[in-house]
Design goal:
The protein has 142 residues and is mainly alpha-helical. The protein has helices at 5-8, 14-39, 56-79, 85-107, 113-130.
């Protein structure tokens, strides 16, 4: 029997591939940002005075966990077709949107263009994730 990609696993729809790509890129960016914050190589231009713990390293570790490790685990789960991955995608989108809202609350208004970009990014992940079959979507048999 010859093997084709469709005999081993179903081909992923374009929206699923886009969702995975957004989460992989999010994780890669978070790992880079976390290293910069933890090592002290990122200059926040005086905004570090508004941080709740007075430490950019704490923010770096949180960035690493919330926007680096979480999306990585969800992407791996999705690639392995774990049943919890659909809910994990929603969690990643909510976590990113929440991260930006809290960040703007601490660092002040108006938001930096990167904060606007990542807010839209989080909403895109959330929108794509909610299109997946899951407890929030009725299954129609299609």
């Amino acid at each position: 029997m010859t093997r084709t990609p469709t005999t081993d696993r179903a081909v992923r729809p374009r929206a699923d591939r886009a969702l995975l790509a957004l989460e992989v890129l999010l994780a890669v960016g978070a790992y880079g940002g976390a290293v910069g914050l933890i090592a002290g190589g990122v200059d926040l231009g005086g905004a570090e005075e508004n941080l709740p713990f007075g430490s950019m390293a704490f923010g770096g570790w949180m960035l690493l966990l919330v926007n680096g490790v979480l999306p990585t685990v969800v992407v791996i789960g999705a690639l392995r077709r774990r049943p919890w991955a659909a809910a994990g995608h929603v969690l990643v989108g909510l976590a990113l949107v929440g991260w930006i809202v809290v960040q703007v609350a601490f660092l002040g208004w108006p938001p930096h263009w990167l904060q606007v970009l990542y807010l839209v990014w989080g909403l895109a992940i959330l929108g794509l994730a909610l299109r997946l079959p899951g407890p929030w979507r009725a299954r129609t048999g299609r």
